[in-house]
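Is this the right way to post structure tokens for a design question? Let me know if I should format differently. Anyway, here goes:
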């Protein structure tokens, strides 16, 4: 079974409410109808009447006929309570009550994220129009990071065409989209969030490999030292919070994924070519790697999946299709289970 089929089944069983702020986009409207008709979730779409009408006309669907709730975020009766929540969260940063109200009624991402913060929806999916930066800022201001994590990050769920040598058909790559050059402490946060994401989405024990051009000190460089520190601190963090995961590194890619190579490059290591979570040293290597695996090996890449936030919020590629959006909706629901 492909990972997205498993996630879809779990999403249907949970049947949560998901807010889709970008109702001005025809793909989002089409995805909302598909998700509702497929029994995946109860979508709520944000948009003005003019935006919704135009998007429905382009998509050739009707939200009303599909029983989908539409909220005009510029006039909604939810504005006062959502603005009050934003004010309480941001007043220490100098935001006034008046400014909070103006932000919520003029910025649909803030309106949607605050709905999630108030549990009026159990997750948010956007990014068909908005940038990743806009997604991160609004979610951080409205929801914040999960307990024990200071830095939000992202992963890509890599649905492989065929299994790895160790039999895995789903790998998680992180961080490929958010943190350009993470510090040691930020790598630990990325590792924790990705391990938790793997358990939520795949349901197996995460086996993390911190990737490098070096395997267990085969090269000497400050970049290698940094990863070695991150591995040590990650093991300590996981032991402290009781997170059941295996952590190893620094490892080259082949030592992380091929048992016969690990036998010589990582003797005595806890990951013997059977890693299912790959932690990259920076955004360049992670982004390049996921695109290579996607384009040359035919993997399906779902993401960037945001992680480390207090509640499920997910980003979309601006080149996404309606089907892509439905897939990310399934992932978002499963992140909250």
């Amino acid at each position: 079974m492909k990972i997205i089929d498993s996630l879809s089944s779990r999403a249907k069983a949970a049947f949560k409410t998901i807010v889709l702020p970008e109702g001005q986009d025809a793909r989002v409207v089409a995805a909302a109808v598909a998700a509702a008709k497929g029994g995946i979730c109860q979508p709520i779409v944000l948009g003005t009447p003019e935006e919704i009408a135009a998007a429905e006309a382009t998509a050739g669907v009707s939200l009303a006929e599909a029983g989908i709730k539409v909220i005009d975020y510029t006039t909604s009766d939810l504005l006062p309570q959502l603005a009050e929540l934003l004010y309480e969260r941001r007043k220490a940063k100098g935001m006034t009550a008046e400014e909070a109200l103006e932000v919520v009624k003029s910025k649909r991402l803030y309106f949607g994220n605050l709905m999630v913060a108030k549990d009026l929806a159990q997750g948010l999916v956007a990014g068909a129009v908005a940038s990743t930066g806009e997604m991160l800022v609004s979610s951080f201001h409205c929801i914040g990071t999960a307990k024990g994590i200071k830095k939000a990050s992202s992963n890509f769920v890599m649905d492989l065409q065929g299994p790895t040598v160790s039999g895995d058909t789903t790998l998680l790559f992180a961080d490929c989209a958010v943190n350009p050059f993470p510090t040691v402490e930020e790598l630990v946060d990325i590792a924790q969030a990705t391990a938790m994401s793997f358990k939520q989405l795949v349901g197996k024990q995460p086996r993390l490999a911190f990737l490098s051009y070096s395997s267990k000190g085969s090269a000497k460089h400050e970049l290698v030292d940094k990863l070695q520190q991150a591995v040590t601190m990650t093991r300590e963090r996981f032991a402290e919070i009781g997170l059941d995961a295996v952590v190893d590194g620094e490892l080259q890619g082949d030592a992380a994924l091929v048992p016969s190579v690990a036998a010589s490059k990582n003797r005595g290591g806890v990951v013997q070519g059977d890693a299912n979570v790959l932690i990259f040293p920076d955004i360049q290597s992670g982004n390049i790697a996921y695109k290579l695996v996607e384009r040359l090996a035919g993997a399906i890449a779902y993401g960037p999946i945001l992680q480390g936030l207090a509640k499920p919020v997910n980003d979309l590629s601006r080149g996404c299709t309606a089907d892509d959006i439905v897939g990310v909706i399934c992932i978002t629901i499963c992140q909250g289970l």
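Format looks fine. Someone answered above. Worth noting: Residues 153-301 form a domain with the Rossmann fold fold (CATH 3.40.50.10750). The radius of gyration is 21 Å.
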